Protein 1
Amino acid sequence: MSERPPFLRAVSLDRDKVESFVTHPFSLPASQYLASDSISFHPQVTFFVGENGTGKSTLLEAIAVAWGFPGEGGSKNVRVRTHEIATPLAGALRLEKGAMRADDGFFLRAESFFNYASEIDREAHDTRYYGGRSLHEQSHGEAFFNLFMHRFFGGGLYLLDEPEAALSPMRQMAMLSRLKQLNDSGSQFIIATHSPILMAYPHAKIIQFTEDEVREVAWQETEHYFVTREFLNAPERMLRALL
């Protein structure tokens, strides 16, 4: 089966729309990189990885807003009724879109998921898409997982910011299976994550953000893989060094 072209091909920065690269968020490594280069996306799964403060989540949020999602998360049809997050980076981005139109889409933010759940209850949306009951009646992890399993219909662009925050390792592995199903139905994902389990998804593109550079890496090259492997191989030695 031939590979479907992506809904979002690449992102770059319009320097003419940036007043200063000294102030946030344009001072972040991710923004600095986009000032002179672009980031291209895999048609199925692209991961943003790296330490906090490098701008990976800020960039993901800006891409979401530039695409038309609410800054606090949700879909184009369900917008959270709280203050809109200011995303100056979004207005300076250039999105290179593919020829095909996405039928569905969602921006999942762990930190504002409670507000999204409240909006679903307020508007009395069909709970079949969220596991059959209010998201507030489920544990945080259960609500996250049911949203991923039932609300993502396929054929869309999905942006996920650290979805592993509420998921056990077993649920993260189940998420890999669901990712495959959604990819087979023509979906594209861009995911900011710290999870080496999620990063192991076959053939995904991994973009690593550091203070010095932004580049594509293999799964085994990520710090997340290396540190996790070292700890599991010699936990006593690692704990002695830490404690």
Note: The chain has eight helices and nine strands.
Protein 2
Amino acid sequence: MTLAPNQAYAWTGQVLNALRGALHDAGFAEILPAILSKRFEPGARHSLAVLGDRALPTVRSIADDQGRPTVSAIGADYYYLPVSHCVEKQLALEFAERVYCVAPCLRLLMDGEHESGRHLYTFFQVEIEWRTESVDDVLTTIERVLATMAETILTRPSQELTMDKDAIGRIAALGRRPFVRLPFSDARDRVRGAGGSVNPHAVGDLTHAEENALSHEFDAPFWLTDYPEGVRDSLYRRNGSGTFATYDLVLPGGYGEVATGGLRPHSGDDIRQQARNLGPVVHDQYAAWKDRTALQTGGLGFGLERLIRYCAGRSDILELRFAHDQGPNATIDEGQRLCA
């Protein structure tokens, strides 16, 4: 049965309020996200906002060489739209100790993702970051935040929320600490026979079929840790073992990855070196900031709608699309896909 629209609103409000409260209890200050930026996100596939000169930009629909519809926009200036707030939240830590924001993001769907049940064009990322040099500190802190959030939902549910026995069990699992920590290499070995198409983001990453099989092996959230080079599309601290101090939080029961993060590169030189492996942009501004401040930070970003989908027990994330959302998410259930 499809989720009723009023329940999509109720679950979103319940999870968001409980998560904000848990982060506040853990000492995190909420900051406002930056919506537009002249800075290119390391490893990202950005979309652009075109600003008009005191008027709407001129937009033309044209066909490309193969007859496919495309759009041309002419305006006074352009900015990158956010795919995350990974760098912005680090910059904020020059003036704060522990921060988070609920950041609106726009990402292009890759092959197969319009049918995954958990990918959206526009979504919200709960970006969390603080001054730390310890992966253990990050993982235990986030586990505590989730446990507090789960307790709030279970003990103080809103009157509008319909929560059955299965939902209570799923949410209670968020507080079942400590979570298993599974090195990426071990995870690959466990699900190597699951098959699936090559991950469109990185050839060496788990396929969607492998991630789904792994998620079904657990009845509580678990961590994937110690990713090798060439798997992630962002910049992270290097481990001595040749892996990176990075991690994913995966939900059980086939709900899949809900958060991604890591410790940040230790120096400006390492930022430049890793950035060259991801594309032509070296990110000198970010590297110079790292050299000037010498701040060492870590954190992660939660896919908010994915967390809500898990709590509500929905197979398709589109059931959580608000009635007031008339953006590109409305095209996903029509089988349409913007070109990546």
Note: The longest helix spans residues 5-25.
